[in-house]
What we know:
Elements: H1 33-44, E1 51-57, E2 63-71, H2 81-90, E3 95-101, H3 111-127, E4 130-137, E5 143-145, H4 146-149
Parallel strand pairs: 3-4
Antiparallel strand pairs: 1-2, 1-3, 4-5
Amino acid sequence: MKKQSPVKRVNIVSLKLIKEGSVLYDVRHLTTPADAAGLGRLFLSDLDREQVLVCCLDNKNQPVSINVVSIGTINCSEVHPREVFKTAVLSSAASIILFHNHPSGDPEPSQEDLAVSKRIKDAGELLGIELLDHIIIGSEDSYCSLKERGSL
Length: 152
């Protein structure tokens, strides 16, 4: 007699994005890295460890949502494309900007920062969600735009 496989229960799910709050920002369209850096600075200045944020934008480069992707240590933070694009897909984003801070205050990108940017850019191309920039927030008003640098 043939032994039957045990049955498997499959969960039926729904997905939703939950608004936890909002912030007023005086630049409606993010048209320059400086505009974007100002928005990123609202969330990342004066932190004692690295954080990575994704800012999801509509077709007119207007921010529609911001999500903390990763909280790391004083000098690193893990970033995986699935965590970045989860919010982007649920927000119906046309494009994204990645932000992270360097608690040291020096916004110079590391080799890991450059590698993560390439990985996120490549994943975005597959999904049809463009990575517009990866901005590293330093101390005071310093920042580094990987787009301006030609590293994207």
